[in-house]
Amino acid sequence: MNSVDAVASPWHEGEREVQTLAGVRERMDALGPRVIRDYMPEQHRTFFAQLPFLIVGSLDPAHQPWASVLAAPPGFAQSPDEHHLRIDARPLAGDPLSSALLSGAPLGLLGIEPHTRRRNRMNGVVEQVDARGFSVEVQQSFGNCPKYIQTREPLFVGGAHAAANARRSDRMDEAARRIVAKADTFFIATAHPAAGDATASHGVDVSHRGGRSGFVQLTGEGTLTVPDFVGNSFFNTLGNIAVYPKAGLLFIDFETGDVLQLAVTAETIWDGPELAGFAGAERLLRMQVASALLMPAALPLRWGRGDLSPFLAPTGQWPKAA
């Protein structure tokens, strides 16, 4: 990395490595400083304020990333100024996010509105925590394209359950496997190994993944394989995995409100027969489940059925088992 990169680039070494492998490094070097900001533009501030749920990436005390969901009536997230986001909501009971909400802790935030296919991301650090929620200071703010988002609109059905029936295990039970097998959407949290230091790019990130139902292939006791389609070429997720191969996955059963959180180790597969056999995949993500937390009917939201993303039309499916 030269001195210019050190000053101007929003990318860390893992992101630059993956951008190089994908052949987009030069383009991202030019684009990154123009689209990744250290503040939230007015459009993003307004967008977060109208959402009934947010996706949050965090780190537990063992530096394991987790992806979580916060849900409350719209307005629970407010931006008092372009450098801060205030969130008046608390994690679900038992969610690892509870122990991560400490002053100075790094977080990744994803605001997503499936029925309009809009999404924006913000990475920052916890500034203050109180009984109502917490505030985040912005480090990186950027938008994402609408690719691979399935349209479905949320409906409130009552208060969040206390998660008394939460089940934690070092493997996925049958209920967890069913959620994964039918999923057309999940969220993934990753981190730089130095997350929490003063470098903006060394943070926690959380992002969205979408595909046809069943695009997450489950084999053995807990091996997940996911096609990685063409995207914005930032490679925040894969860049983090290149330097720190742990991730947290979040699956939501949109019909029942079940929440499934998985802690995994991850690697990126760049070539081979499996990749060639999945139409539209540019790479594969392979992940091994280390821990699972299932919270039945924990969310106060349900989502109606919607339309598959039109960007998935040219993509394939995993071959059926013989």
List the uncertain runs.
Answer: 1-7
Shape: globular
* End-to-end separation: 49 Å
Largest sheet: 8 strands, antiparallel
Notes on the protein architecture:
With 322 residues, the chain is of the alpha+beta class. Strand 12 and strand 13 form a beta hairpin. It is built from eight helices and 17 strands. Helix content is 18%, strand content 36%. Strands 9, 10, 11, 12, 13, 14, 15 and 16 form an eight-stranded antiparallel beta sheet that branches. It starts with a helix and ends in a 19-residue tail after the last strand. Helix 2 packs across helix 7. The longest helix is centred in the N-terminal third of the chain and has 11 residues, at 25-35.
Concise summary:
The chain is α+β, with helices and mostly antiparallel strands and 322 residues long. It contains eight helices and 17 strands. A hairpin with a 4-residue loop joins β5 (106-113) and β6 (118-129).
Blueprint (SSEs and pairs):
Layout: H1 3-8, H2 13-21, H3 25-35, H4 42-49, E1 53-59, E2 65-71, E3 77-81, E4 84-87, H5 97-100, E5 106-113, E6 118-129, E7 134-144, E8 154-156, E9 167-169, H6 174-182, E10 185-191, E11 204-210, E12 217-219, E13 223-228, H7 236-243, E14 246-252, E15 259-269, H8 273-276, E16 283-295, E17 301-303
Helix pairs in contact: 2-7
